[in-house]
Amino acid sequence: MQGGSILTLSENKIRKKKEEIILSAVKIMNEKGYQRATMEEIAAELQMTKGSLYYYFKNKEDLIFQCHELVLEQAIGELREVFHNCISNEAILRQMIAVHIKYAVLEKESFNMIIKPDETFSTDQLHPILKKRNEYASWFDRVIIAGIDCGEFSIKESKMARMLLLGSLNWIQQWYKKDGENSLLELQNIYSDYLLKVMK
Amino acid sequence: MQGGSILTLSENKIRKKKEEIILSAVKIMNEKGYQRATMEEIAAELQMTKGSLYYYFKNKEDLIFQCHELVLEQAIGELREVFHNCISNEAILRQMIAVHIKYAVLEKESFNMIIKPDETFSTDQLHPILKKRNEYASWFDRVIIAGIDCGEFSIKESKMARMLLLGSLNWIQQWYKKDGENSLLELQNIYSDYLLKVMK
Amino acid sequence: MQGGSILTLSENKIRKKKEEIILSAVKIMNEKGYQRATMEEIAAELQMTKGSLYYYFKNKEDLIFQCHELVLEQAIGELREVFHNCISNEAILRQMIAVHIKYAVLEKESFNMIIKPDETFSTDQLHPILKKRNEYASWFDRVIIAGIDCGEFSIKESKMARMLLLGSLNWIQQWYKKDGENSLLELQNIYSDYLLKVMK
Amino acid sequence: MQGGSILTLSENKIRKKKEEIILSAVKIMNEKGYQRATMEEIAAELQMTKGSLYYYFKNKEDLIFQCHELVLEQAIGELREVFHNCISNEAILRQMIAVHIKYAVLEKESFNMIIKPDETFSTDQLHPILKKRNEYASWFDRVIIAGIDCGEFSIKESKMARMLLLGSLNWIQQWYKKDGENSLLELQNIYSDYLLKVMK
DNA sequence: GATGAATGAGGGTTCATTCAT
DNA sequence: AATGAATGAACCCTCATTCAT
């Protein structure tokens, strides 16, 4: 039923290809930034030609949009899991911080789109992006509020605390270097420690 | 004396014009991002033509570079003053946070440029930019280290604390709205409170 | 075999187009000079648009470069043939002069480019151009030296004699008119006579 | 009478300035070629500003035109002198060759305009240029014809011989290097020897 | 006479996008 | 489903030219 018809088969094939392209795009963008990543390069990475991309995506913006969606979806998935698998709110928040840092550093550019979507997207696509971005942020809100409610956290302004938290994390990608002094793990721990001092 | 003043007059005129252009550039760039801001638009904003800009700036990169310099220089000036006029390190840091927020919010456009210089500048100009950026940051480092030394602050990783601090502040411009719930003053106070919890 | 021919087909097609463009470029350039020939005009001549040229050539310099190469290659081919098919060095030199005059007059535009490569090319491409130009000239050197060795010619400075010879021939295109008093054949004969007086 | 009035005085001043500019222009052009020589550079050489040039010359073409005139006038002057001061036609021709080589090498670019005036000048100015160029060439014609008439030279086609001669000389500037193997004097002698073999 | 400043036309180049095959 | 080829709009930059002062 689910995968029976021929149509679905070819649809599956297309979806596969789309994902491949998105991954390639994400890679190139992480190297060069979105504006400088050209359709040509993205295609070349997959040994395709420029024109072929337009079979799968309406235009460049659409492609970037879907890159963003994919990455954000994944990240949200991880947040959700963390949320349901940890016990204390502190533990959850620590895990979430770790997840965010991981994405901010490793998926730098595609994650970056969260930061300044209005420079990247036209009005049409801006809305769903912002929605997803809010969904992502809301997981942080949840823990913080839960923490406040059960007395684990003492801050008053949950929204602003979340802003502070995410802001400080986003910034990491501006300076973090893979071969630098600190490992990703150290980073995750230190930031967790510091940011929990804010919350408590 | 005579020659001097005449010279200064025309030099002043050119400097004025340069500043005008820089302000225009900064405005456009913040609306559209650096890459998408065109020389034409920047000129049009001032009712000039594209070509005229090249009378004042060698090329686009040079213009962006000087935008950077101007704003950063001003901000550094304010930090310096704060540093020398306050008593406790906590007081200094609070003031510095206030200054940074003010720039990030009110001079949003200009200050923004600090964020991603490496995508904007060629290697030649990247270096002096990073230097100035470091100079700016170093004022924060100084207070933090001084605070640690005299026991006011307890954090271990001064550099990372500074990163966290500046990152969280930079992010403010992503969401802050003049007519929003919080006044600038409230913002400055809350962020100071929260970030000092990190330091102590 | 199948793959080979298909490949060759499309390769051939692209080579054809490239040649078309080169011919167009060569025509425009000889009307206006290299600097004043614009990519737009070159394209317009073929009812293409500027941008399309960049599908075939990296940039203007590359296009000019290949113009050079193509014509020079052909001419070298003819010299080589002459060299191997004639008996006396005098006969060879006469034939070579005829070839050179033919190119200078009939393929005026293309051949012209040999004249001032150093104002046209950047250092990178200058070298291979000069090399090919030298290769062309070296065929003349060979006959002259051979002629000297076997006593047919009596001049001392073979290099300078070659310069004089080629210089005088190149100049022909400055004044020669198809419908003028002298036929091409007369021209070839008279110049041969005169220049051989130099050699003997 | 000649230089009495104030008007003439200032006219003289203007003429002086014009010559200065022309010399500067000639210098820059000899370094960069005419197309690449900018009004700015020419002015800078004289510590003037671009705009001032337009007080003295209608436009760039006019300036180039007058450069050309000046140099050609000088060269013609030298030819005239040679013509009247030498005894045998051979001696005259040798001297003329020396003069031409000197200009072709030392005043490379300004002399060069003789070579391809149609690329440099619009129809308006082309005519007087060609006229002067013919005047220049006619001095060579005269000696050659005189030489034929008195039996010194044996060639039949005086025009073509002159073309051959000037062509070979013009070409020198394509390859001659100041610090090369041959001094200017050697060059003048060798070319004279070779070209007189043609005439005789 | 000279200059500073501005202009505008044009050139080279890039690149997302289209479309016939 | 993919490609090769072409397009055209947009961008940066240069430079001869102008003109008020």
Overview of the molecule:
The structure is a homotetramer of 200-residue chains. Helices cover 78% and strands 0% of the residues of chain A. The relative contact order of chain A is 0.11. Chain A is mainly α. The first copy, chain A, folds into 2 domains: 1-57, Homeodomain-like (Arc Repressor Mutant, subunit A, Orthogonal Bundle); 59-199, Tetracycline Repressor, domain 2, CATH 1.10.357.10. Chain A is elongated and about 55 Å long. The model of chain A has no long low-confidence stretch (mean pLDDT 88). The N and C termini of chain A lie far apart (52 Å). Chains C and D meet through helix 9 and helix 10 of C and helix 9 and helix 10 of D. Chain C binds a DNA duplex (21 and 21 nucleotides) through helix 1 and helix 3.
CATH-scheme architecture of the largest domain in chain A: Orthogonal Bundle
Arithmetic mean of pLDDT of chain A: 88
Low-pLDDT segments of chain A: none
Biggest beta sheet attributes of chain A: none
Question: Number of helix segments of chain A?
Answer: 10
Largest interface: A-B, 31 and 31 residues
CATH superfamily of the largest domain in chain A: Tetracycline Repressor, domain 2
What coarse outline of chain A follows from CA principal-axis ratios?
elongated
**Subunit organisation of the chains:** homotetramer
Percentage beta strand of chain A: under 5%
Q: Specify Rg of chain A, calculated over alpha carbons.
A: 19 Å
The total of beta strands of chain A comes to: 0
Determine the N-to-C terminus distance of chain A. Answer: 52 Å
- CATH hierarchy, class of the largest domain in chain A: Mainly Alpha
